[in-house]
Write a structure and sequence with these properties.
This protein is α/β, with parallel strands linked by helices. The relative contact order is 0.15.
Length: about 325
């Protein structure tokens, strides 16, 4: 048994497929299968079984999976310690992030991290919040960024910063009950309007407005829908949704074109608001304030590079908060 075999086994366990694992680690499928057979022969028991749709770990495989990850992380730590001693930290850091952190948080973090570790590269995958949690739980990534707190004991989180959701519409739209606001919840670079949902008939008219929404699993969508259900006191409350779109930039273009309204992070539309390309609204009657989180597995030893980036994130946002 060697580190290379363990790396192959861990990737197969994560991908639940010989072919996907082979593609991920740039080996042929027969080579991957041969490594797994060699491990099973040495250990004396099967490590994987074929399920209806994908590979599953046997009980022995689950034990080896846990220890293999620890051994591979220990190997990375040894290499990282030597590289750190000689100031040659390098490697590729894979991160999974939901839309707002991916677009508006990660770029600054990566740029600042590269000042200290210029030989590091990044691979960032964009998923919605539910997919971020799933990928961390399934060991596909060590670190993830999400717009909702974790709901599993198998995950840990670090609260990074506050994020405010607002309602946006095309620049030429006028909504029932809109008015100027003196609300200071958000540090405004451009003025926002406000809608009092408690006012009659605004409360009922609001639900009839056309909306463009994110896909199921989006933290932004979940927060908005839950806030509406709480305000209206209805669990089966439905919006007039004219389109479900997965890409945040596509949603912004759809709103600017007048397709409908949407609720989105204020960070995502600061430029459009300042240029007058959209109108932004606060909804004081809804709880639309949230936090963004860094997520990782509980009781799991991070690789040295992931640990360094996690430490960097904590320091980065601590300094930002102090300033």
């Amino acid at each position: 048994m060697d580190f290379h075999q363990l790396r192959v086994f861990v990737e197969v366990a994560r991908q639940k497929s010989f072919s996907r694992a082979a593609e991920k680690i740039f080996l042929t499928q027969p080579t991957v299968s041969a490594h797994i057979k060699s491990l099973e022969k040495e250990i004396g028991t099967p490590l994987l079984v074929r399920g209806q749709r994908e590979l599953q770990l046997t009980d022995a495989g689950k034990v080896l999976f846990q220890y293999a990850q620890q051994l591979l992380n220990l190997e990375k730590k040894a290499v990282f310690a030597i590289q750190q001693e000689y100031h040659i930290i390098k490697g590729n850091l894979e991160i999974v992030a939901s839309s707002v952190p991916s677009s508006y948080i990660l770029p600054g973090l990566m740029k600042d991290f590269l000042k200290k570790y210029p030989l590091v590269t990044f691979s960032a995958k964009h998923w919605d919040t539910e997919q971020v949690f799933e990928n961390i739980l399934n060991f596909n990534y060590e670190l993830g960024f999400a717009g909702e707190p974790v709901r599993s004991n198998e995950l840990n989180q670090i609260q990074l910063l506050k994020d405010n959701l607002i309602l946006v519409a095309a620049a030429n739209v006028s909504l029932p009950g809109e008015k100027r606001t003196e609300n200071k919840i958000i540090d405004l670079s451009s003025p926002l309007l406000e809608i009092d949902l408690k006012a009659y008939p605004v409360q009922e008219m609001f639900l009839k407005e056309p909306f463009v929404m994110r896909e199921t699993g989006s933290a932004t969508r979940m927060i908005f829908e839950n806030a509406l259900k709480k305000f209206y006191g209805k669990t089966d409350m439905k919006l007039n949704v004219v389109a479900y779109l997965e890409n945040q930039e596509t949603i912004k273009e759809a709103v600017k074109a007048g397709l409908g309204l949407t609720v989105i992070s204020h960070r995502a539309v600061e430029t459009e608001l300042s240029l007058g390309l959209m109108k932004g609204y606060l909804l004081p009657d809804l709880q639309l304030e949230r936090y963004l989180y860094l997520v990782y597995r509980s009781n799991s030893v991070l690789s040295p590079l992931s640990q360094a980036f996690l430490d960097h994130c904590i320091y980065f946002f601590k300094i930002a908060e102090e300033n």
